[in-house]
Amino acid sequence: MTSTLILLAAAVATYALRTVLITVVPAHRLPAALRRGLGHLAPAALAALVATAVVGRGGLPVLFVPGPVHAALVALAVAALVAWRTRNPALPVLAAVAVLLCWEVLP
Q1: Domain encompassing residue 1
Q2: Would you give the end-to-end CA distance of the chain in angstroms?
Q3: Are residues 77 and 101 in the same domain?
Q4: How many domains, in total, are found in the chain?
Q5: Cα separation of 106 and 94, whole Å?
Q6: Residues 48, 7: one domain?
Q7: Would the pLDDT of 64 be above 60?
Q8: CA-to-CA separations, 9 to 1, 2, 14, in angstroms, rounded
């Protein structure tokens, strides 16, 4: 019960903070340097999520352990190549999903 209340309080606090920041401080009133940085916020957040998913709970040593090639690393490499070549935010995700599907379906 306590953990549910803590999660609920965190959700309410997060929602309130986002709502207040969006309504009280509109983007056009922010300093120019901060506005330029907002364009990098979404790719940075996505990179953090991907890095967390790839490395997992084992930490960085997981990436350097010799053994079979990890499907996630191959999908990440393909997604990085597609992102670099196309500059489209949706195509790298589709490419990574396609690699993972092929990895699972093909023997």
Answers
A1: 1-31
A2: 46
A3: yes
A4: 2
A5: 18
A6: no
A7: no
A8: 12, 11, 9
